[in-house]
Amino acid sequence: MTLVIIVGIAIALFGLAYSTKRRFGVLGLGLAAGVLLAQNATPFVAAIFKAYDLPVEPLTYAVSAAVTLTLLPALLLLVGGPSYISKRSAVIGATAFAVLGTLLILGPLTTALPTIDSGIKQMLDFIAQWQAAIIALAILAAVFDTILLHTGKSNARKHSKH
Questions:
Q1: Domain annotation covers residue 119
Q2: What does the pLDDT look like over 131-153, one tens digit per residue?
Q3: Does the residue 162 lie in any domain?
Q4: Cys staple from 146: which of 21, 25, 53, 65, with CB 3.0 to 4.6 Å?
Q5: pLDDT of 26-53, one tens digit each?
């Protein structure tokens, strides 16, 4: 069940990013902002979830709050912002967004979901070995993608004589 939930989240994140064709740079930095929000506001938001008795099973209120806060800034940025023109770029950006988003919420999710199955345990151990490096590279890629927003072909057109 845990693997199905994790893969389902990754597919949903990919689908959202691809259907809107939003740039990975902005979405990736939104995820980074979400991690900071989750680190600082999870207890407060968990208390709100509990006060309103929101259904969060099989997760705890704290895990639900952490996942929500991590994803919320990026999901809001899906509504507007820079987008890719080419299909290939949109696929690459959506894949990067899905991988980064899934890795960032994997920690909270695995504290609440069962990981007793040896297959899922081995996979999670493998991911844990590479998680920090992949997240760091993805954040660097997001910054680089954001820089490309301001150094693209549009600047060349502004300065052309024709």
A1: yes
A2: 999 999 999 999 999 998 876 55
A3: no
A4: 25
A5: 999 999 999 999 999 999 999 999 999 9
